[in-house]
Structure formats: C-alpha cells, structure tokens
Design goal:
It is globular and about 60 Å long. A hairpin with a 5-residue loop joins β6 and β7. Strands 1, 2, 3, 4, 5, 6, 7, 8, 9 and 10 form a 10-stranded mixed beta sheet that branches. The chain is of the alpha/beta class and 328 residues long. α13 packs antiparallel against α15. The protein has 16 helices and 10 strands. Helix content is 48%, strand content 17%. It has 2 domains: 191 residues, Spore Coat Polysaccharide Biosynthesis Protein SpsA, Chain A, CATH 3.90.550; 74 residues.
C-alpha cells in the first residue's frame, strides 16, 4: 500500500479562479511526493464544484449542500485524510515548486513539531506576517482603537520593536525560525499524529480565530508550533472574505470568537477583563468612527456600520452568546 505523504485540504466558497490557480500550484509542487488533495466546497454558486470535477478529476471533492463554515468543512477533510501530514490550505494561495518538499523535509527532521507555518508573500512580493501570539487583551484593545492604522509603521518599528514583536507578528523578525504561539490557518502544516492527539478543530468558531485555538490545543498536547522561513508561498489575502472595507459580520465574528478563545483557554478573570474592554470601549470606538470620514472619506469610513458593530459587540460581551457561555 502506498504511503500518502500529505493530505491537502482546501475549503472553498465562491473562489473558483483562485481555486484553479491553487490546485495548479499544488500539482507543480508535488516533487515526487504522494499527495491526496481534498476540496470541500461550501455550496459555491460560481461553478467551483463543477470545475473541480471536470478539470481536476484526481481531486477528491466533497460538495456540501450548505455553507457549513470553514471549520466544519476542514474537519470533513481531516476525517478523509490519509497522509502522515495534513495541510489545511486556503484557495487564495499559490505554492512554489519546492514548498511541499521543504515542508516535509523540515517536519521529518523535527519530530517534536506538530504544526508548521512558513514564510508568506503577498501578490506584490511583500512578506505577509505569520507566526503570532495568541489573542490577548492588549491586542484586542489595539485592534478596537485602530492603532495600526493611526500610528505610522515606521514610528512603531523604530521606537517599539521589541514590544510590538511580541504583541503583533507584523513587527516580528520574518527571516528567523522561531517557536510561536500560532501560525496562520491559510497554510497549517500539521503532523497527522498530532492531529489524532489534539482532535478536530472546534466547530463553535465557524471561521476566524480557529487557527489560534487549534495551535493552542496542539501546544497543550505537548507539540511545538514553529514558524520557519525556509519554505515559502504566496497568499493573495482572502477573496472569500471582504477585507478592503469594514465588514460588520467579520468584526462581530472575530471579536466574539476572541471571547470564545478566552473562555476555552484562559482563566475566568481574563475573559472578564476582555468583556470589560468591549463594554467600555464603545465610546472611544464611536468617537473614532465619527472622525474617520475626515481621514478616509465617508464611503470608506462606514461610520454608522462601525457604531452599530461596537454597540452589538458590547451587548454580546454583557450577556455572552450561548456558544461562548457553555464552551468546554
């Protein structure tokens, strides 16, 4: 029986063109490895599933009748995986010819590593931050107050490099191999034995923060999570999620999932502190939203949508949604 080296799991939702490029790059990157490629399509309306069936007949296609979310779909793929390594790969990624080979070589040489993240480039060739710390109160506060947008990057890099390197991956050394809290879910290279020990991804997340949660589960099970720049890839940064404008759904999901992460992994006092940040952060967020039209223009500012998001989030922090309140 042939041993499968890597089971590659790609969850797709209306990203047909990206998926084509991704799958083509997977074929180019096989490098003699035995690859099992699984595409889980979350009821796309752009012909993605039909394209996979006709253009990539060797790919195992799971066509869901509903959009079950990234996490549940990833678990579907994990259940079908046969490889000694499992790669959760976003469709808006492009692998280089040596990406998979180098990843396997690294993991074969480091049996203590359960999860690997690699150097990630944008479409313009810039290095995209990867290898980060877990969600925290200070990171949440900085995100709510839009500090990265307000403070110039050059100023931050010059005056706060040590602090910010620990707080945000955008300011960490991207050319240095290091053990990290978590790596991005767009390229989550997992040891199958580690997955068996840690179990499946937590489906209460649906999408967002699930990579932090799973890396935390792996670390609790005794495995290391490593960022290694010796292999690289391209990440086109989210075609299935709108990132250029403020998305109310994404804003609420990310912050509610942050509360879920705190509930699952941190002492109760830290969740209480996070909830207080969301409640008392309403006023500064409203003030920032009211000032944004001056900086960004009224269309990009989306002032009233941002204010609504801050108010809805504060309410969620006060009452805690059921999926957070009863999280294991």
């Amino acid at each position: 029986m042939l041993i499968v080296d890597i089971s590659i799991i790609i969850v797709n939702y209306n990203t047909k063109e990206d998926l084509i490029n991704c799958l083509e790059s997977v074929y180019r990157a096989q490098a003699g490895l035995k690859i099992q490629t699984i595409v889980i399509d979350n009821n796309s309306k752009d012909g993605s599933a039909e394209m996979v069936e006709t253009s990539f007949p060797d790919v195992e296609l799971i066509a869901n009748k509903d959009n079950v979310g990234f996490v549940a779909a990833s678990n579907q793929g994990i259940r079908h995986a046969k490889g000694r390594y499992i790669l959760l790969l976003n469709p808006d990624t492009i692998l280089f010819e040596d990406t998979l080979e180098k990843s396997v070589e690294y993991m074969d040489a480091r049996p203590d590593v359960g999860c690997l993240g690699i150097k990630t480039l944008t479409a313009k060739g810039n290095i995209f931050p990867n290898g980060n710390t877990f969600p925290s109160e200070i990171k949440t506060l900085a995100r709510l107050l839009m500090l990265r947008e307000i403070l110039p990057n050059k100023w931050i890099r010059k005056r706060l490099p040590h602090i910010m390197g620990k707080v945000a991956s955008a300011y960490a050394d991207r050319e240095q191999e290091r053990e990290v809290d978590m790596v991005g879910g767009f390229y989550l290279f997992l040891r199958a034995d580690a997955v068996k020990q840690a179990g499946e991804l937590e489906e209460a997340y649906w999408a967002d923060i699930e990579d932090s949660d799973y890396c935390c589960m792996l670390k609790k099970a005794g495995w290391k999570v490593v960022y290694w720049p010796g292999a690289s890839m391209i990440h086109l940064i989210g075609s299935s999620i709108e990132r250029r404008t403020f998305s109310l759904d994404t804003y609420l999901r990310v912050n509610e999932n942050t509360m879920l992460f705190f509930k699952r992994h941190y002492p109760a006092r830290r969740l209480l502190a996070l909830r207080a940040i969301y409640v008392f952060g309403v006023l500064p967020q409203i003030l920032i939203a009211l000032l944004l039209p001056v900086c960004l223009g009224s269309e990009k500012a989306q002032t009233f949508t941002r204010i609504k998001g801050a108010l809805v989030l504060a309410k969620s922090a006060l009452i805690l949604p059921e999926r957070i309140r009863y999280a294991r």
